Amino acid sequence: MKAIDILTTAIGNSFRSRLRTTLTVIAIFIGAFTLTITNGLGTGINQYIDTQLASIGAADIVTVTKPVAATTTTTGPKPYTANGPTEVSGGGAPGSTVLALTDSDITAIGKVAGVTAVEPQVAIRTDYIEYGTNGKFQLSAVGEGAGVRIQLAAGSQFTSGTTSLEIILPTSYIDTLGFSSNKDAVGKTVTIGITNAAGEQTTLDATLVGVQDATLFGANPSFNPALSTALYDAQKVGQPATATSTYSSATAHIDPNATKSQVADVKAALVDAGYAGTTVADRIGTFQTVIDGIILVLNAFAIIALLAAGFGIINTLLMSVQERTREIGLMKAMGMSGGRIFALFSTEAVFIGFLGSAIGAGIAMLVGGVISRVLARGLLKDLAGLQILSFTPSSIATVLLLVMGIAFVAAVLPASRAARQSPIDSLRYE
User: Fold this and answer.
1) Closest Cα to residue 360, out of 18, 36, 39?
2) Between 124 and 382, whose confidence is greater?
């Protein structure tokens, strides 16, 4: 009997007892459906997180701070030292304290092996933003480094290398400032007010190049490097010439194609130089680990359902072997080997597993697509671009192969029993 004959015979035998096969397929369907849905949930959330990473930093950026050195003082403030290092808050995790970076630190960071460029993160305290006659509104923005891609509802990313002053505003600013729509706002000129060191308020005009969608990490107005520099320079007007510039952190650029080990080497070199480096992956890694852990637990429940279905396959095949004892004896008497009989029954089990998993995965994709669209228009409408359930060919193939593998393992016992039967005893079976 050829392989194709074994396959066609196994498929035909699967439907000899339709009720029994149907019940087994339903059990497999439940497990495959659950496993596909939970995998789709994990894929959808992780894909959304990946698309959001660019909004908080590019992959080739390391945020550098100078940690406070450990001392023997365990409580209370440290003694004051004239011309000593200055501590600032907010440079690391919330509530943390780091040493302020100076221009000499920026130079030192730039010399660390693996760092291609470095720029200080300056603190800009703007007063307001204004457009037309709609009034002035508070503005708290962040500067965006090279390589950062903001999720946009309209407009475009910052122009690379430009000296033009550009700003991107979140959608929450559009109606407030008096624009009729996101598209209407793009290309318009807004006025930003800032107070300098002498207490005088000055203004700068910037072009609104894009409107930012709400993201998982919030949405804030963003300045391009040229606007950040212009505002910082305006803010410093009137500052004594002897004043020293200090920064809470710096942005170090590394090779965009650097491997994980190379990034780790750069961070180790920064530590050796007295600094600490944090990548986007470091900041988001814990969050992704929690999500993956939740999905793993959900997948475990689906696997339990599939294992229960596996016992259904064992029962189905054992009954089939018993019912077809004389048939097995006849096949052996006609020269069919035990290996081919084993292949026949195991193929029957694998086909039942494939049938149940294919139906389960297919319906899960249909149901998941509907749920994603409903949630995107309702509960999750503020998270643009989030498809809560996302299915990839690789994940569907994994589910099918896993279920078929469980079905094959479940078939080993009954198929082995069929293969070991004596043709004489089988033909005598009543």
Assistant:
1) 36
2) 124
